Amino acid sequence: MATSLRTRDGGPATGRPASRRSRGETPFRYASTGAGILLLAIMAAIAVFLIVEAVPALQANQGSFLGTLTWTPNNTEPSFGIAALAFGTLLSSLLALVMAVPVAVGVALFISHYAPRRLAGVLGYVIDLLAAVPSVIYGLWGVIFLVPLVQGPYEFINEYLGFIPLFGGESVGGHSIMTASIILAIMILPIIAAISREVFLQVPRMHEEAALALGATRWEVVKTAVLPFGRPGVISASMLGLGRAMGETIAVALIFPATFGINFHILAPEGNSIAANIANGFAEAGPVGRGALIASGLVLFIITLLVNTAARLIVARRKEFSGAAA
Q1: Would residue 219 count as lying in a domain?
Q2: What is the pLDDT of residue 185?
Q3: What angle, 0 to 180 degrees and rounded to 10, lies between the N-to-C axes of helices 287-316 and 227-247?
Q4: C or N: which end of the chain has fewer Cβ atoms within 10 Å?
Q5: Which residues cross the membrane (predicted)?
Q6: 252-269: per-residue pLDDT in tens?
Q7: In a domain, 32, yes or no
Q8: For residue 239, with 0-12 CB atoms within 10 Å meaning exposed, 13-18 middle and 19 or more buried, which class applies?
Q9: Is the predicted pLDDT of residue 100 greater than 60, yes or no?
């Protein structure tokens, strides 16, 4: 004998969602769609602004924007190029990433799988606090404390490891790409560690228990269950940190000696970056100079966009563990 479904008040059930949910779903869908469209519109507006402002300076440039190693846009015959600035930006950011990622992943693993609960909570709070420190503080710390401190170690490395191209050069100094990279590594480490920690905490408990049941040690559990699951998150966190490093302005502006040249000797007192050059030169720039700085900002915008696109592609190819949270 068939029975009919009834609501709590005794009336027949219609199978439709509640009216309150129906009224709220449509505005939410439009709001979320509008937010996504607004974000794309803002990015497009930024790109259009940079292109419009950069074109007159590029037309007045007497040199090659991609190959010239000088930066004299305020002269009567302006000549400037992005090569040296892009080189310093990419090299310092990549070195910072190489130094920061292993430490950040280790810190995240310690907090999520090794530290006692109380200690993990304190360390997590400290990591989050480090991410909130203003960049100018890191820059001042680097200029006042780190630059004098590294002079001796740099001379030692240059003397005994100078046969390695990165550590060679006729002179070394605290105001170098290496020092800027150390500052950037310290700045991006909390970001990578915090995101990686949250990803590692999402590893399904059943995966870890299964590995332990098979006789795996704690390190083997981390290697076989935690790291494969968290790899996409670590990659995303690393790319986010790389974008932060490439766009950092004040901290590196205080460290870099504002020279223009391509030099792989990271201990030499040379180096500059796109963001630092914009900060140092915008106040004294003329019309062409401002356009040249905006053109360099356009290059940084494109580089950052390419880096994030590459990160998305890498993460999309490594989704084998992303749905294992159930």
Answers
A1: yes
A2: 95
A3: 180
A4: N
A5: 30-52, 80-110, 122-147, 177-196, 249-268, 288-311
A6: 999 998 888 888 999 999
A7: no
A8: buried
A9: yes
**Which has the closest alpha carbon to 196: 155, 233, 246, 221?**
233
Total structural domains within the chain: 1
> What is the distance between the alpha carbons of residues 210 and 213, in angstroms, rounded to a whole number?
5
Q: What is the CATH number of the domain that holds 278?
A: 1.10.3720.10
| Max CA distance (Å), the chain | 96
| Termini Cα distance of the chain | 38
Beta-carbon contacts of residue 157 (< 8 Å; ≥ 6 apart): 167, 172, 267
Q: Is residue 243 part of a domain?
A: yes
Question: Could you tell me if 194 and 120 are in contact, meaning their C-beta atoms sit under 8 angstroms apart?
Answer: no
Is the pLDDT at 37 greater than 50? The verdict is yes
Q: Return the number of other C-beta atoms located less than 10 Å from residue 302's C-beta.
A: 12
What is the spatial distance between Cα 61 and Cα 163, in angstroms, rounded to a whole number? 39
Please name the residues in contact with 234: beta carbons below 8 A apart, sequence gap of 6 or more: 101, 105, 192, 195, 196, 199
- The CA distance from 184 to 180, in Å, is 6
State residue 13's pLDDT score.
52
Reply yes or no on whether the pLDDT at 18 is more than 80.
no
User: Phi/psi at 286 (nearest 5 deg)?
Assistant: -85, -170
- pLDDT per residue over 121-144, tens digit each? 898 888 888 888 898 999 999 999
Residue 23 lies in a domain: no
Tokens read off for 40: 């794309």
- pLDDT band at 1; cut points 50, 70, 90: very low
Q: Which domain holds residue 182?
A: 60-71+83-316
